[in-house]
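[job 4471] stage=fold_predict status=RUNNING
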Amino acid sequence: MDSGEDFLTPEFLNILFFQQKNLVIYPYVDLKHLHSLELFTASYSHIDLESTALHDLRQMLELESESSYSQSPAFYFIYNIERSQVKDVLSMDSIRCVLNSNDAISDLADGGRFVFYNKKNNHFLNYSGRDLEFENHLISSAQSREVLYDSIQKIKSTASLIFAELNNNNSFANLPEILKEYDSQFWQKILNFTGSFFEVNVPKVEELGQNPQEKVKKKDNLQDFSDEYEVIVSTNKNIGKEFIQCLHEYRSKKVNASHLELEDLFNPLRLYNYLRNKHWKEGISETFLKDWNSMTRSQYTLTEDDLGDFNIIFEKLGVPLILINHIEETKLKNKKGKKVSSSIKRVESSVIPSIGNFPAFKGWMFETLNKIESLIGIKPTALNSNVPHSLENTDLSKKGLEKVIVDLTNILYEDLDEDRNLQTSSVLRIKNLLISKGFDPIFMVDASTNYKMDDEKGFKELEKNNVFKKAPAGRKADRSVLMLAQENNCHFITNDLYKEYREEFGEKWIEENRITLIFVDGQWLFEYP
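[job 4471] inference complete, writing structure tokens
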């Protein structure tokens, strides 16, 4: 399933912000997840366009560009875009955008201003992703999206000062002063961004008379601990985030803010260098290290791999052996009580029928689910008590409900796995539940549902066995659900209000025929209109 976090990477930061390039993402991605990329589009106003509703997309974009009175240039999120429309947009010179298409468009990728990204395979077609040290630093050192956004906006503000200096004074003399708050190894990237954003020529950092290898601005002969910091924040993402939170908490409790510059207060690398020079001259304090290792702020549970990463970090920092032994003791504690019961082993060792013999496979699946539910204390008869009390004695056959049309994609969102994927196993469980209640369900899914499942291969097998029907390419199942329900004169099941279809199909008819099915505290609950 798509996740906004998938796009918060150094590569996308580099493409959209530092290089000021555009993105073409395929196949279909949910719009709300595309919008996570807004983080990397500082100083732009954002416009959503649903391309299927536009007769001439290119003409509309050109007119919008000519007639815009906004001080901020437009950045477009264009979704459901067809191949021919992609070709039109690729030929436009000044547009900034993210395109999302479900068509076959990989052959359109070239070396221009549009970077193609296959979301399904997590692969860029025409982008190498080199020299991302600054991007990695910005993302790994940010405690939250808000902090990362502020860092990006600050770079944009710095670029504006550089542009003003170059434009007004035609001189490089004051650029080191403007850039001084940044590690000088990143100066060239900021200068290049200034050139891309403002479309001006910028100097090479060597022309500023500075040493590009100098990592931290020297002040009061402070020793540079940047290498230590990079080890801490880059070895393990969760451990690095906890460290930064601990660092700022330590600063708020133990450090006199008047001794720090503004940048030292909020830049974790600068703060770490200050603390290592002033508070932890002989090494990070033991109390701090143990507090960090406890992960109390994020409440993240360390895995054995995480503990191994902690060990690596501590060894590189030269932490005393007693603290490394403390981590080893934590490992042993985590290993205790992890015996697998013989009954679970018996469930795992049962013979799985071929999915080609679908009736046998279906029977095995429900039998296995019942065994698992029994092991964890759920009664196998729970499916018969999932209807609210007011419906317990309802005789569905008396309502003439032999068939029901189900917006399956919508219902599957009720019970996501821990990675927020739709669960393939839920499909047959929902079908079994509906049959047990007297329904003859017809399942409809959105065209893009397969990309959101935890088990795409298993979901495709269900499709081959006609467990559900799929909406046309690039479309949601909503309209198909309503049309089938009208044709069969039956109810439909969805948690969507279908507001956009009420004029077409009739508000009263939708309200009278819509049944909801929600998942609460491990149970599926129906509700009639």
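[job 4471] summary: The chain has five domains: 4-124, 133-208, 226-335, 339-378, 385-527.
[job 4471] exit 0
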